[in-house]
Design goal:
alpha+beta; eight-stranded antiparallel beta barrel; 3 helices; elongated
């Protein structure tokens, strides 16, 4: 489990690095800051004019207005933006003149911080690039999946209260990536969520027992010494698919719209299918002279094909999550056992 914890921490740290940005202090005078703002003013007005012209062209294409009227509206928009630039630059020039007159123009603004975005619109690792035009409608988004919690086994003919495994000591973890696509074009009440995940299902037997592959089946047997640790783990690679329902908030901009579910309740139900990657067992005991650690890796008669059902109910970025394997843990055992997991999942935005 320690290796899994390290992997989780590393992945989350890398993802955090993609989200954050560094800041660096630049020594700029008040006048230099104002001079830099001139270019920003020009770019803002040009972008605004571009959006207005595109909107007018669309009205012409849709037959709402004639080409002649569209030309007139575009000329009016261009004149308005030109006057905006002239007036806003005049304001900046007046501020610069005032600073020079009072002898304050050379004052250094050492405490002003300029953000350097390593990942963001227009910049990657501090290098400028031309960003793609924002999509009008983005129906698919993606998220990193991280889940963890308690793990146990449902044994045929027995209740969970009679489990052969420790409740607190048996745990699971899941790491993966999920895409979420809006099913219908005009509404967001139903989404389909799909991707891939690595599942790590751990079990700790009770009563000083461990798993033994007898050749025909895998069974729990009592160890001949006192065990300090007995831990069994199955690692799977699966493809989960969930249908997600719940309300959302629609936000409309000048040239785009989005649906957001951040502060809404979400309910997902579906299943998963995949392959078993590895099966491991760790034993720790004292043989009377020294502490012994054994790591066993093998087939253990475990099922190779994994499939099951899962569901979650979430709020904001987290959810209560449950999954249940429909395949038996061991293929040839006379009494079938199936894995059950319950915990928290983080990928709800």
């Amino acid at each position: 489990m320690r290796i899994i914890t390290y992997c989780i921490a590393l992945v989350m740290w890398v993802l955090a690095a993609f989200q954050c940005h560094a800041q660096e202090i630049y020594s700029l005078t008040k006048i230099e800051v104002l001079e830099l703002s001139k270019e920003e003013i020009i770019n803002e007005e040009k972008d605004a004019l571009k959006g207005e012209v595109e909107a007018i062209n669309k009205r012409v294409e849709d037959g709402e207005i004639t080409e002649e009227e569209g030309g007139r509206l575009k000329n009016e928009a261009a004149e308005k933006r030109a006057l905006n630039i002239e007036n806003r630059l005049a304001i900046v020039d007046n501020k610069i003149a005032l600073l020079k007159r009072n002898g304050e123009g050379d004052e250094i603004l050492e405490n002003d911080k300029i953000e350097i975005k390593f990942f963001g619109e227009g910049r990657v690792f501090g290098i400028d690039y031309t960003p793609k035009k924002r999509k009008y409608d983005r129906r698919t988004t993606s998220d990193f999946v991280f889940a963890f919690g308690f793990n146990n086994v449902i044994t045929e003919g027995e209740s969970l209260e009679d489990s052969d495994f420790k409740v607190a000591g048996s745990r699971f973890a899941e790491l993966g990536w999920a895409w979420k696509t809006r099913v219908f074009k005009e509404t967001n009440w139903l989404r389909i969520k799909y991707g891939f995940s690595f599942q790590f299902n751990g079990l700790k037997p009770t009563d000083n027992r461990y798993f033994v592959d007898t050749g025909t089946q895998t069974e729990l047997q009592t160890f001949d010494r006192d065990l300090d640790k007995s831990k069994f783990r199955i690692d799977n690679l699966v493809v989960p698919v969930h249908f997600e329902v719940g309300p959302s908030r629609k936000v409309e901009g000048k040239d785009y719209f989005r649906y957001y579910t951040h502060r809404k309740v979400k309910f997902g139900f579906g299943g998963y299918a995949g392959l078993r990657l590895a099966t491991r067992q760790k034993l720790k005991f004292n043989d009377g002279a020294e502490d012994i650690k054994q790591k066993q890796k093998g087939n253990f008669n475990a099922s190779n094909f994994i499939y099951g059902v899962s569901a979650y109910i979430g709020w904001r970025g987290s959810a209560l999550y449950a999954k249940y394997d429909l395949n038996p843990i061991f293929k040839d055992n006379p009494v079938e056992q199936r894995n059950l997991s319950l915990g928290l999942r983080f990928d709800m935005d």
